[in-house]
Design goal:
By secondary structure, the chain is of the alpha+beta class. Helix content is 31%, strand content 26%. The protein has 13 helices and 22 strands. The model has no long low-confidence stretch (mean pLDDT 95).
């Protein structure tokens, strides 16, 4: 028998198919049993959600590709009941605000065109169900005027950002106080609209309203993510931060002189947008062409003056994962670990492995090195889940070279990383 979460997702997928909207059939992904989540003690007095995209590299070290915030998808693959824990965690984090407000909205934003739309809609329904256990709550999109109680609004980043204003640092949606926002990429959209200001990596707004909580700035500061990895068991990647194209160019060349391939990433991008890979023998014309494409792609995807939000661009050492066997070929991969921080506790769930769609033979073609491209044919061919069964790695995990001992190291490393991030992000 299907549980109600899976039914919710199937229903969303049916509706999307009827409307001919491309999407991933997330309801069909394998999920772990009840012992798929690891709970550890944690020094925190509040809530935050992050998702760590990890690899195990060819030398057996753990690297962090990036740490995501409440924009991340594919988390429903990490637990038998999908995103129930994530949805309840978001409502718990918003608890004091919801209790203080007679009328409020909870915003769940997604990147337009995302393949994960069915999963996101199912999660929004779970958030609505959790709130409506206590008080009236409806589930709407941005074309509908919120009602008298609580409304959960699920829509694209741009359509939600278009309705937001800021007063005394607090967010209002159509003039109604906002109790919670899932998706930190709403902030760069508001920066482009001139609604939120920035001090370097710090956004001048009420960051606490985001499900990311006090980790919001860190979710976009991928250089800080590597700094925080020091001493956690995650081997930090070399990085350089660049304020303009000229310094990006110099940074790529500096990596090349060290014999390193590199990856450039725009600030506040997602879904593989504004990401470029630079090989050791790329000549200067190729480097310049790739940098120009990074800016062009960012401009194409994001509305408004993208130069306000895309800088700094950060360059990272390229981290090559173990080779994951797929038929006769081998693919690069990364693994998503959802981390739900709550007072005194951290819950880690192993969501899935994403394989790059094309095989890896050494060259840095995008299909061989980029595992997450919004707009690729939205199927689940490159997803592997469940990763953990009864506390032990499944075959999916073992094929990436992660056995019991490495899984234990990953648990410790994620816990330490989250703790150092939490401690470093003390609210001002
Ligand atoms: N340092 C790295 N080394 C090798 N591949 C990387 C690195 N960083 C990212 N990637 C690849 O690029 C993809 C997109 O990068 P990511 O930082 O996750 O950006 P996005 O914000 O678009 O998700 C990753 O899923 C991974 O496949
Ligand atoms: Mg990513």
């Amino acid at each position: 028998m299907h549980d109600h979460v899976q039914l919710l997702m199937m229903l969303a997928e049916l509706a999307l198919r009827a409307g001919q909207v491309p999407h991933e059939a997330a309801s069909r992904v394998g999920r772990p049993g009840p012992a798929g989540t690891v709970r550890v003690p944690f020094r925190a007095d509040g809530y935050a959600v992050v998702g760590m995209d990890l690899i195990v590299n060819v030398n057996g070290q753990i690297n962090l590709c990036e740490c995501n915030g409440s924009n991340m998808a594919a988390t429903s693959f990490g637990a038998p009941d999908g995103d129930v824990a994530r949805a309840e965690h978001q409502v718990a984090a918003a608890g004091p605000r919801l209790a203080a407000l007679a009328r409020a909205v909870v915003l769940i934003a997604y990147a337009a065109g995302t393949g994960a739309i069915a999963e996101i809609m199912a999660r929004a329904a779970l958030v609505c169900a959790r709130i409506s256990a206590e008080r009236p709550c409806d589930l709407i999109d941005a074309s509908v005027v919120p009602g008298a109680g609580v409304s959960v609004v699920v829509d694209s980043v741009e359509r939600i950002a278009a309705q937001l204003s800021l007063a005394d640092g607090r967010f209002f949606y159509q003039g109604i106080p906002v109790a919670s926002i899932a998706n930190p990429n709403v902030v760069p959209a508001l920066v482009r609209r001139g609604i939120v200001g920035r001090d370097g990596p710090h956004y001048r707004c009420d960051t606490d309203v985001f499900h990311d909580g006090r980790l919001l700035d860190v979710v976009h500061d991928k250089a800080a993510q590597q700094r925080l990895a020091q001493g956690t068991g995650i081997t930090p990647l070399a990085w350089r931060e660049c304020g303009d194209l000229k310094s990006c160019f110099a940074a790529v060349l500096a990596f090349q002189r060290q014999g390193l391939r590199s990856v450039g990433k725009m600030n506040g991008g997602s879904g593989g947008c504004g990401i470029e890979f630079f090989d050791i023998d790329d000549d200067e014309v190729t480097v310049a062409r790739k940098l120009a494409r990074m800016e062009r792609d960012a401009r194409r995807k994001y509305e408004g003056p993208v130069e306000r939000s895309m800088w700094p661009v950060r360059l990272f050492e390229f981290a090559q994962s173990t080779l994951y066997p797929v038929g006769d070929a081998h693919h690069l991969w990364d693994m998503r670990v959802q981390c739900l921080i709550r007072p005194g506790l951290l819950d880690l769930s192993f969501c899935g492995i994403r394989l790059c769609p094309g095989p890896f033979y050494g060259s840095l073609d995008r299909s061989s090195v980029l595992s997450n491209v919004t707009g690729r044919s939205p199927d689940l061919v490159t997803t592997r889940s469940p990763l953990v069964d009864n506390g032990r790695p499944t075959e999916h995990m073992r094929l990436g070279g992660v056995g019991e001992a490495k899984l234990g190291e990953i648990v410790v490393a994620c816990t330490r990383w989250c703790q150092s991030a939490w401690d470093a992000c003390e609210p001002t």
